[in-house]
Design goal:
- Belongs to the 4-hydroxybenzoyl-CoA thioesterase family.
- InterPro entries: 4-hydroxybenzoyl-CoA_TE, HotDog_dom_sf.
- This protein has three helices and seven strands.
- It is of the alpha+beta class and 151 residues long.
- It is globular, with a radius of gyration of 16 Å.
- The chain has one domain: Hotdog Thioesterase (Thiol Ester Dehydrase, Chain A, Roll), CATH 3.10.129.
Length: 151
C-alpha cells in the first residue's frame, strides 16, 4: 500500500490533472533508462497543466505580483522508465489554507503501475522576495471556489 505524503485535512478532496508523454532518446542515460534528474521535469509537466486549467498557473500568480518557488521536493523511484515508453503523469493539489501549494505526483507506465512518485511544496513570495504568510486575495477566491465544490 502506498502511504500518502500529506495528511488528510478537513478541506475538500485534492484537485488533479493527468498528462501523457513518451520518453525521448535525450532523456535516457547510457543504461537506456530515464536519468533520475528528468523526473522532476515530468512532475512539472502535470503541475503546469493542472495550474493552467484552474487559473493558478505561473503567469496567473505573476500577474498578481507573486512567484511560487519550490521549498521542498521529494522523489521515490520505484521502477525505471525506458526509451520509447509511454507514461502518464498525474499531479494532485492538496488543500491548504496557508500561502503554499502542496503537490503530490504519480508517474504510471503503460500497465498503469506506479513507477515513480513524489511531492513538492511551493511557497508564495512577492516579486520583492517577501514571503507571504497568508494567501493573496486572488488565491483566496480560488480556495472559496474549491471549498464550495465549484471546481
Amino acid at each position: 500500500m502506498i502511504k500518502p505524503y500529506f495528511r488528510s485535512s478537513d478541506g475538500p478532496k485534492p484537485l488533479s490533472c493527468k498528462v501523457e508523454r513518451r520518453i525521448r532518446f535525450e532523456e535516457v542515460d547510457p543504461l537506456g533508462i530515464v536519468w533520475h534528474g528528468r523526473y522532476p521535469s515530468y512532475f512539472e509537466d502535470a503541475r503546469v497543466a493542472l495550474g493552467d486549467s484552474l487559473g493558478i498557473g505561473y503567469m496567473d500568480f505573476y500577474k498578481q505580483g507573486i512567484v511560487t518557488p519550490i521549498k521542498q521536493m521529494h522523489v521515490d523511484y520505484i521502477k525505471p522508465l525506458e526509451y520509447g515508453d509511454t507514461c502518464s503523469v498525474e499531479a494532485l493539489l492538496h488543500w491548504s489554507e496557508a500561502a503554499k501549494l502542496s503537490y503530490e505526483f504519480y508517474i504510471r507506465n503503460e500497465q498503469d503501475e506506479v513507477v515513480t512518485r513524489g511531492y513538492s511544496v511551493l511557497l508564495m513570495v512577492t516579486l520583492e522576495r517577501e514571503l507571504l504568510v497568508t494567501p493573496p486575495d486572488f488565491y483566496q477566491g480560488f480556495l472559496s471556489r474549491w471549498s464550495s465544490g465549484a471546481l
